[in-house]
Design goal:
Structural class: alpha+beta
Radius of gyration: 22 Å
Helix content: 10-25%
CATH architecture of the largest domain: Alpha-Beta Complex
Distance between the termini: 59 Å
Strand order of the largest sheet: 11-12-7-13
CATH class of the largest domain: Alpha Beta
């Protein structure tokens, strides 16, 4: 990971980076993010770039070095461009609607699943097909965007055995770019008695 840690992070125009003690704050056109850094690394701004240096040569120091650099890079990317994760909802009678700060999902249960959208996250839901919806989760914090997308997917994970809803696609919620290997169901009328 230290190869990643050595790369400088160039600060784009309109982004301000401030370091106070063990906290790095990045402010840009899309918002502001702060993160505490590990004491094994030091962060500095030199010639319009953020440099991350480690304070030791152990394997753990090298891992923290690369991790810290990646986290700070994601902060800069988030306040500049933001992050977005897409989900697909497939199933007969399934639907997704955003009402205020809540995502209301009909997933074949006896009740709707209501998810309160956390601060810093925006969710869009649109109908693609009679039995197919797309949900877009976006925000400036990469971790939070991924976490919210994972929570929504967990309400009805894709079922590799059922592909009745949209031809070739499993029933449930899956990531936009996720490949689900469809499985063969049981065949035959039963075993020997």
């Amino acid at each position: 990971m230290s190869r990643i840690g050595r790369k400088p992070i160039y600060i784009p125009e309109g982004v301000k980076v401030s370091i106070s003690g063990d906290e790095v704050t990045v402010e840009g056109p899309k918002g502001k993010l702060s993160r505490k850094i590990h004491p094994f690394v030091s962060v500095s701004v030199v010639d319009g770039a953020i440099k991350v240096e480690r304070r030791g040569e152990t394997r753990f120091h090298k891992a923290i070095h690369g991790l810290t650099r990646a986290l700070i890079y994601n902060m800069v990317e988030g306040v500049t461009n933001g992050f977005r994760k897409g989900l697909e909802l497939n199933g007969v009678g399934y639907s997704a609607v955003v009402k205020g700060r809540q995502l209301v999902l009909e997933l074949g249960y006896s009740h709707p699943v209501i998810y309160d959208i956390p601060d810093g996250i925006t969710i869009q839901a649109e109908r693609i097909h009679e039995r197919q919806y797309k949900i877009y989760v976006s925000g400036i914090d990469k971790y939070l965007v991924g976490q919210v997308a994972a929570i929504i997917r967990s309400f009805r994970p894709p079922d590799p055995y059922q592909r009745r809803s949209v031809p070739g696609l499993p029933k449930g919620i899956r990531y936009e770019d996720e490949q689900i290997k469809l499985k063969q169901g049981k065949t035959g009328a039963g075993g020997k008695r």
